[in-house]
């Protein structure tokens, strides 16, 4: 894949994309950027699922504290909303 150097605003993103595509072409996932279609006889990559860790509560010492002023209460509510 040959791409013009990024000289105009429209193709400034192409250099990093081109570099990523070239790196990808040298991996086992090269079929993603290949110019030839995948054959039905091709061996597929083994799918290894990656578990996603559950949400970890943060700033609980701030959200569990009893607010003293109206400002503290409003800030605590805003923090609780941001964490949800």
How would you portray this structure in words?
This protein is mostly helical. The protein contains 3 helices and no strands. The chain is elongated, with a radius of gyration of 25 Å. The two termini are 44 Å apart.
User: Main sheet, how many strands, which sense, barrel?
Assistant: none
Q: Assign an overall shape.
A: elongated
Question: Which consecutive residue ranges, at least 5 long each, have pLDDT under 50?
Answer: none
Query: What is the β-strand count?
Result: 0
Helix % is 25-40%
Instruction: Indicate the radius of gyration in whole angstroms.
Output: 25 Å
Order of helices and strands: HHH
Count of helix runs: 3
How many domains in all? 2
What is the average per-residue confidence, as pLDDT, rounded to a whole number? 81
How far apart are the termini? 44 Å
Look at the helices and sheets and give the structural class. mainly alpha
Q: How much of the sequence is in beta strands?
A: under 5%
Topology:
Blueprint: H1 14-25, H2 60-63, H3 70-83
Features of this protein?
mainly alpha, 84 residues
Summarize the structure.
This protein has 84 residues and is an all-alpha fold.
């Amino acid at each position: 894949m040959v791409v013009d150097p990024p000289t105009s605003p429209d193709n400034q993103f192409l250099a990093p994309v081109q570099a990523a595509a070239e790196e990808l072409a040298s991996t086992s996932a090269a079929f993603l950027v290949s110019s030839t279609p995948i054959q039905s006889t091709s061996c597929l990559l083994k799918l290894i699922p990656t578990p996603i860790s559950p949400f970890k509560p943060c700033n609980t010492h701030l959200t569990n504290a009893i607010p003293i002023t109206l400002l503290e209460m409003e800030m605590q509510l805003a923090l609780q909303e941001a964490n949800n």
